[in-house]
Specification:
The protein has about 375 residues and is α/β, with parallel strands linked by helices. The chain is built from ten helices and seven strands. It comes from Piloderma croceum (strain F 1598).
């Protein structure tokens, strides 16, 4: 169902003018977007959208900014020009969320898919993936279009419900560069792209609100409206305005990438209570796990986040117990510096249940 972008415009600009703590950041972001539209015009500005929480915030702000420029009730908003360059093996739930955003925000989404060969955007592959409003462009199965490198998971620890097999070597930066080249070829009039990068993101520390792409890359101005937002600001905005976001964030994920290197955040892991310890030990999920207060965990590498090859559980037993793990939603993460603790190898904190059981016995007595 399509959203009413005029309602979005009213909500975001009202929030910007309010006394809410987040109001200055919302006002700043809207000013950056408005200035980019003043510089280039609506037809020459696009948005990078991959379904994550940051670009969901950005898309909502962008939709409001565009609608506010056309207050007439008779105005039919144009499709929002947007770009999606997927990682290797994206989460199905994430792609489903992107599908919903196509209609909700009226996106004209350019989707670089390695195995989509029809350059006209009307191939059967397009229909199979459900992106009925997306433009597709591929490069004969070339996995270098992936936008992040992912490690090869250990087969014996490949037990998380979303885990898969290795995709081999992928070139993150090169994939993004080539994706932008394809976009420039298809849409040569686009000069600026809105990006949901924040200061705390990798490579975000030195960016400003507006930066040109590096030498050797397609010429775009990167517009970073929420560069000064932090993790908590993102969730404050999404929840205050009741903005729909990907369901994975309600399952303990705090930073989304490939299924091969993205897991629920260990800082949101719900420790079993004394009353459920026996249930976990016996491999039964009859009782619900009771969530304690979320505890911060260290950001530096520690044994809690390393893969121990000598885990005491065999693969089959480990898989059975891993399925019972519970996590609190992403917006309950207290320390934003831990946002990316779920990225990389599967943390032993959430699979080494033998240690958890020993800790429970010490706290509650032998169960």
């Amino acid at each position: 169902m399509a959203l009413n972008c005029r309602d979005i415009a009213r909500e975001v600009y009202d929030l910007a003018d309010s006394q809410e703590p987040i109001a200055p950041l919302v006002k700043e972001a809207l000013q950056v977007i408005d200035q980019a539209l003043d510089t280039y015009g609506e037809d020459r500005v696009s948005i990078s959208f991959n379904g994550g929480k940051d670009c969901t915030v950005l898309l909502h702000l962008f939709a409001g900014s565009l609608a506010r420029r056309h207050p007439s009730p008779e105005y039919n908003s144009k499709p929002i020009k947007s770009l999606y360059i997927p990682v290797p093996s994206p989460f199905p739930a994430l792609e489903s969320f992107i599908d919903k955003c196509l209609q909700a925000y009226n996106l004209d989404l350019f989707h670089c898919v390695p195995d989509a060969l029809d350059l006209s955007g009307s191939s059967s592959k397009r229909k199979e993936n459900g992106h009925t409003s997306a433009n597709w462009l591929g490069m004969n199965g070339d996995m270098s279009l992936a936008v992040e490198s992912v490690p090869s998971p250990e087969p014996t620890l490949n037990t998380h419900p979303h885990a898969g097999t290795s995709v081999g070597k992928s070139k993150g930066g090169e994939g993004m560069r080539r994706g932008l080249e394809l976009y420039k070829q298809r849409y040569p009039d686009i000069d600026a792209i809105l990006v949901g990068t924040r200061r705390g993101d990798p490579h975000g520390a030195t960016l400003s609100h507006r930066n040109m792409t590096d030498p050797g890359w397609p010429a775009f101005e990167r517009i970073n409206p929420i560069i000064n937002w932090d993790y908590a600001d993102v969730w404050t905005f999404l929840r205050k305005l009741r903005v729909k976001y990907c369901v994975l964030y309600d399952e303990g994920y705090t930073s989304l990438g490939s299924t091969y290197n993205t897991f629920p955040n260990p800082a949101l892991f719900i420790q079993p209570s004394c009353s459920t310890a026996a249930t976990i030990t016996n491999g039964s999920a009859a009782n619900e796990l009771i969530p304690p207060p979320v505890q911060a965990v260290p950001t530096a590498p520690s044994p809690a986040f390393s893969l121990e090859p000598e885990l005491p559980l065999d693969a089959q037993e480990q898989q059975s117990k891993t399925k019972q793990l519970r996590y609190r939603p992403a917006y309950e993460l207290l320390d934003g510096s831990l946002e990316r603790e779920g990225r990389g190898s599967y943390p032993s904190l959430v699979v080494n249940l033998a240690s958890s059981e020993a800790s429970l016995e010490a706290r509650c007595g032998n169960v």
